C-alpha cells in the first residue's frame, strides 16, 4: 500500500509525449498516489536511436524541455489554450496524477525541474563532481506549482559496490571502470579480464 512504483527514466526521445502521459495515467488509475514518472533524455547509440525514433524522415531532434512541458500539460489537463492538442483529456475519470520527475545531470535539467515545480533526480553516477552544484541549482530555480509537491523533491542516484572488505569492493569496480573506458567498443568484461 505504501510502495511507490515508477520508471527509472522514460527516454523521451523515443516516445510521444501523449503516449507517455497516457500510459502513466493508466498506472495512476490502478494505484492512485503511488506512481512516479521519471523523464530523461539519453540515447542508446545511433542505430538504436534511429530504430526507436518517432519519425525516421527527419534528423533526430532534441526537444526535451518541450516534451516534458507537454507531458505535464497532459497529466494535469493544463495544456495552454491554442495548443494543437489542448482538447485531449487523458485524465478523464482519474482523480490524481503521477508524481513527475526530471532526471538529469546538468544545470539545464535542474532548472527545468525547478521552474516546473516538479521533482529532480540527479544522475550522480554520470556526473559525480556536479552533485552539489546541480542540486543547489534545482533548489534555487524551484517555483511551487500545482504540478508538484509544493516543495523541492530530490533523488540522487549513484553507483555503489558492497563487499566484505574495501579491497574486494574495489576489485568489483574494475569491470565497470574498464567498460567506461571502452564505451561503445564491446562487452562488459569479467572481473578476471578487467584485472588482467
Automatic annotation (TrEMBL):
SUPFAM superfamilies per record: Bacterial luciferase-like (SSF51679)
UniProt cross-references to Pfam families, sorted A to Z: Bac_luciferase
Family matches, as InterPro entries: Bact_Lucif_Oxidored (IPR050766), CmoO-like (IPR019949), Luciferase-like_dom (IPR011251), Luciferase-like_sf (IPR036661)
One cellular-component annotation, GO: cytosol
GO molecular function terms noted in the UniProt entry: oxidoreductase activity, acting on paired donors, with incorporation or reduction of molecular oxygen
Segments forming domain Luciferase-like: 1-179
Homology family: To bacterial alkanal monooxygenase alpha and beta chains.
Protein name, per record: LLM class flavin-dependent oxidoreductase
Organism listed in the record: Corynebacterium nuruki
Amino acid at each position: 500500500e505504501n510502495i511507490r512504483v515508477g520508471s527509472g527514466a522514460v527516454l523521451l526521445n523515443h516516445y510521444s509525449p501523449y503516449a507517455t502521459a497516457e500510459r502513466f495515467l493508466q498506472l495512476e488509475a490502478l494505484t492512485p498516489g503511488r506512481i512516479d514518472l521519471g523523464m530523461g533524455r539519453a540515447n542508446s547509440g545511433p542505430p538504436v536511436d534511429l530504430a526507436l525514433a518517432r519519425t525516421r524522415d527527419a534528423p533526430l531532434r532534441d526537444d526535451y524541455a518541450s516534451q516534458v512541458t507537454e507531458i505535464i500539460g497532459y497529466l494535469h489537463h493544463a495544456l495552454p489554450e491554442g495548443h494543437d492538442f489542448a482538447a485531449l483529456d487523458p485524465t478523464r475519470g482519474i482523480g490524481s496524477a503521477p508524481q513527475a520527475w526530471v532526471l538529469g545531470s546538468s544545470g539545464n535539467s535542474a532548472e527545468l525541474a525547478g521552474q516546473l515545480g516538479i521533482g529532480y533526480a540527479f544522475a550522480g553516477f554520470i556526473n559525480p563532481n556536479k552533485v552539489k552544484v546541480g542540486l543547489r541549482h534545482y533548489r534555487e530555480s524551484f517555483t511551487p506549482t500545482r504540478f508538484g509537491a509544493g516543495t523541492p523533491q530530490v533523488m540522487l542516484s549513484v553507483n555503489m559496490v558492497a563487499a566484505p572488505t574495501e579491497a574486494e569492493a574495489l576489485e568489483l569496480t574494475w569491470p565497470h571502470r574498464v567498460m567506461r573506458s571502452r564505451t561503445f567498443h564491446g562487452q562488459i568484461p569479467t572481473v578476471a579480464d578487467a584485472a588482467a
